[in-house]
């Protein structure tokens, strides 16, 4: 069947929009985003997005942050929104650019992070010719998105953008993907859309509150699993009051988007990564009450072992779903069980000193506790060597703790990048394993370019240590070929030189005293600094 070409419309992309009778679609997009409160854009653009880039140049107000790889762009947008409480925009180049960023959009989906994910695409009349970058962009975007739309005309781009912001911000938050064919961006007739009202946050029903109260009053061992906004300071206080009044246990999933913690705040434990350890920890539990969390599950399946970290005969109860008002639910439950006056656990006031001598996970946690700056943002991507970091820093200065939530490694450095842009004046400390750091080391360049206040503690064991444990967990008897696949030495990575090549100063530490000196210095200076901690 013969396909006839459709001639593109001829427009001028370089005239001042204020001197035209109308604006193009890209200009209406930028103006609508700004009107809706989206003023930061993490970008790795290509040809199809040039009219968007030109509009960003002509219309003031958007902070544009360049990432050298789309995984940096999407991960930084995740970190930004977790700390800013509002979405950033991304700008990705067609389907393959989206594909490069999908892993960290997966993490953002698991974190329930609001992101306005803008993806360029082939001109509408160009798609039938199956040019090299033509892809099922919408099909690739849909699994990581709460909302997906392809703009069809310049006149509707503004309304599409306003709808994307509303969808991204709808509780509990998510990725809203807007696909923009290039002719929709350059065509005239764009219209700025007014911001759409916030979608209402559903309240938990009285029946759910009363049911959870009955479970807690039963006297049977009960576990309350907290996630999402239930891990912010006010909600966490009510959760502790409920636990104190009912003898329930509090816990969080192993990985969380953001936890407020540190000196003067109430601590909450996490479900361990190891299924065996988790099952031992949760033995005897009869009831599991979920507050914004899914039923707990082990990271992976293992031969002959349960995927549940809690007892098989335990009963699951839902107090609040992720999209409901978690803080309100906990406050009402505290009233229902008479917990508002319950005595909270005491928060110890300790004199903390940094560790000396050999580098161990426990020693690093001790030094972090003693030296972490006030109101720091800690981004952790370290499971194996970092086993002591979270439990060992409960008495550190008040801080927020961020993790990659979807298990797709390589988000730690981008998360730190976005968090630093969202929280100027707060030091970001990135606890980053070397293997996963190599996925997105281009983040260091963006940190240098933006002069971000980030201290990167690069944990250099030169192996995929977590996989060595997994190999044993599945009962394998590895030989040289298998072990070589998990070794990232030979040659050894030189992270100080890698950082220098990206414009970031760095130094190496092989003992705790050197680390302490470098960590103090890095946190007192402006801009990024990398400490390669040889472990």
Automatic annotation (TrEMBL):
Membrane-spanning intervals of the chain: none
Region (Disordered): 1-23
Thiamine pyrophosphate enzyme TPP-binding domain location: 398-532
Keyword Magnesium listed: no
Segments forming a coiled coil: none
Keywords tagged on the record: Thiamine pyrophosphate, Transferase
CDD domains linked: TPP_BFDC (cd02002), TPP_PYR_POX_like (cd07035)
GO function term, MF aspect, one: acetolactate synthase activity
Domain called Thiamine pyrophosphate enzyme N-terminal TPP-binding: residue spans: 23-128
Matches recorded under InterPro entries: THDP-binding (IPR029061), Thiamin_PyroP_enz_TPP-bd_dom (IPR012001), TPP_enz (IPR045229), TPP_enzyme_TPP-bd (IPR011766)
Biased composition (Basic and acidic residues): 1-21
Family: Belongs to the TPP enzyme family.
Protein's recorded name: Acetolactate synthase large subunit IlvX
């Amino acid at each position: 069947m013969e396909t006839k070409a459709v001639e593109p419309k001829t427009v001028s992309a370089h005239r001042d929009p204020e001197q035209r009778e109308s604006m193009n679609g890209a200009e209406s997009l930028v103006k609508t985003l700004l009107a809706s409160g989206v003023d930061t854009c993490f970008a790795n653009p290509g040809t199809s997005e040039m009219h968007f880039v030109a509009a960003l140049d002509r219309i003031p107000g958007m902070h544009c942050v360049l990432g050298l790889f789309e995984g940096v762009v999407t991960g930084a947008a995740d970190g930004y929104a977790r700390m800013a409480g509002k979405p950033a925009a991304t700008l990705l180049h067609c389907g393959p650019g989206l594909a490069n960023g999908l892993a960290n959009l997966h993490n953002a989906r698991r974190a329930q992070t609001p992101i306005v994910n803008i993806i360029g695409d082939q001109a509408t009349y160009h798609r039938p010719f199956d040019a090299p970058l033509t892809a099922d962009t919408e099909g690739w975007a849909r699994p990581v998105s709460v909302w997906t739309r392809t703009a069809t005309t310049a006149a509707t781009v503004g309304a599409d953008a306003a709808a994307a912001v509303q969808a991204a911000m709808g509780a509990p938050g998510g990725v809203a993907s807007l696909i923009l064919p290039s002719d929709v961006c350059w065509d005239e007739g764009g219209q700025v859309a007014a911001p759409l009202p916030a979608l209402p946050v559903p309240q938990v029903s009285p029946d759910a509150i009363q049911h959870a109260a009955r479970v807690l009053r039963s006297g049977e061992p009960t576990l309350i699993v907290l996630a999402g906004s239930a891990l912010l300071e006010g909600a966490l206080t009510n959760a502790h009051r409920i636990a104190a009044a009912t003898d329930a246990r509090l816990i969080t999933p192993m990985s969380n988007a953001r936890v407020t913690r540190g000196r003067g705040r109430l601590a909450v434990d996490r479900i361990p990564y190891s299924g065996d350890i988790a099952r031992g920890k949760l033995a005897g539990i009869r009831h599991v009450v979920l507050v914004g969390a899914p039923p707990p599950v082990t990271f992976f399946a293992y031969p002959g072992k349960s995927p549940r970290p809690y007892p098989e005969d335990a009963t699951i109860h839902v107090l609040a779903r992720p999209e409901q008002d978690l803080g309100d639910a906990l406050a009402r439950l505290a009233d229902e069980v008479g917990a508002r006056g319950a005595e909270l656990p005491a928060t110890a006031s300790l004199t903390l000193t940094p560790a000396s001598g050999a580098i161990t996970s426990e020693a690093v946690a001790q030094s972090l506790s003693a030296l972490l700056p006030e109101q720091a943002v800690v981004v952790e991507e370290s499971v194996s060597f970092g086993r002591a970091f979270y439990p060992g820093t409960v008495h550190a200065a008040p801080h927020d703790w961020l993790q990659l939530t979807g298990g797709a490694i390589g988000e730690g450095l981008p998360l730190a990048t976005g968090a630093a842009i969202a929280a100027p004046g707060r030091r970001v400390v990135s606890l980053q394993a070397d293997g996963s750091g190599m996925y997105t080391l281009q983040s260091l360049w963006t940190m240098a370019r933006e002069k971000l206040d980030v201290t990167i503690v690069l944990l250099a064991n030169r192996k995929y240590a977590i996989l060595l444990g997994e190999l044993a967990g599945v009962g394998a008897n590895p030989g040289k070929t298998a072990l070589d696949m998990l070794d990232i030495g030979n040659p050894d990575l030189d992270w100080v030189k890698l950082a220098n090549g990206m414009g970031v100063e760095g130094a190496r530490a092989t003992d705790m005293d050197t680390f302490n000196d470098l960590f103090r210095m890095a946190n007192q200076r402006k801009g990024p600094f990398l400490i390669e901690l040889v472990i």
